């Protein structure tokens, strides 16, 4: 079954069936929805059912149709969780949504019961600014979203909390990890688990740091068999799970296969392993300065053409053309970049 069927069929209370890895995926997906003016941005809370009722009466399916796959799946999911005995009484609070020309960040706190909170971080939505920031992850630390995540966790977690679980899908998984690595030292013991649902890894410097070593034993990195995003940058071992989608579309968590209260174990696809090795080798061969120059040049061109969302620019052949017209970039670097896009184009689309 998939996550929609899980919500419909798995109705046990959290006291009868403790929080699990699938619950983590459900809540991380809900962070893709814009709860501005619905969920308070402070400690005042609202139940998931009440927040969902307001959201669904405010935004109709046609409003979501122009957004990305993650938002559409989250919208469908919301309609199910507000009817679920397991989820509907979860309390939501501390909602944040921040966007700028160079960044995109959102987070929300879910109070499961008196002793457990889940802090969810949104992955990349349809805004070009978010994808630009994703590209920055390979050569800059911290990017703005990571700064916001660190500030957020140090604000909302207190010494009076019991157990804290962090999670996110895609870039949200990276934010969950980075924030857990940088939480105040006297709050670290509150964190019981950190889930990255097919999120990218870390730069070499952060990966080999003491901060990562201190959280590593509580970190669960879940990727689908055909993962691309989750294998980027430096990573440890993965928990590989089966998916009904192939290639880049396996990133969509609605395709992840569930049995009972857990994901069905899978094996990383050979193509995914090959792409992981090639892409990370290419990235490592380009200096941080060159990476920044390339990313800025590409997104400056996209912004000049008036693109604001990924939906307006979901065309890798256009991207190849954009790369070929880049100026002041080393021809060898430009060739490597074209190879990277060609690899994705050939093997994943």
List the helices and strands and how they pair.
Blueprint: H1 3-9, H2 21-30, E1 46-47, H3 48-58, H4 61-64, H5 69-81, E2 91-99, E3 104-113, E4 116-121, H6 128-136, H7 144-156, E5 163-169, H8 171-181, E6 191-197, H9 204-207, H10 210-215, E7 219-224, E8 239-241, E9 258-259, E10 262-263, H11 270-285, H12 288-304, H13 316-324, H14 331-348
Helix pairs in contact: 1-5, 3-5, 6-12, 7-8, 11-14, 13-14
Polypeptide structure, described:
The structure is a single chain. The chain has helices at residues 3-9, 21-30, 48-58, 61-64, 69-81, 128-136, 144-156, 171-181, 204-207, 210-215, 270-285, 288-304, 316-324, 331-348; strands spanning 46-47, 91-99, 104-113, 116-121, 163-169, 191-197, 219-224, 239-241, 258-259, 262-263. With 349 residues, the chain is of the alpha/beta class. The protein has an eight-stranded mixed sheet with strand order 1-2-3-4-5-6-7-8, sandwiched between helices. Strands 9-10 form a two-stranded antiparallel ribbon. Strand 9 (258-259) and strand 10 (262-263) form a beta hairpin. Helix 3 crosses helix 5. The radius of gyration is 20 Å and the shape is globular.
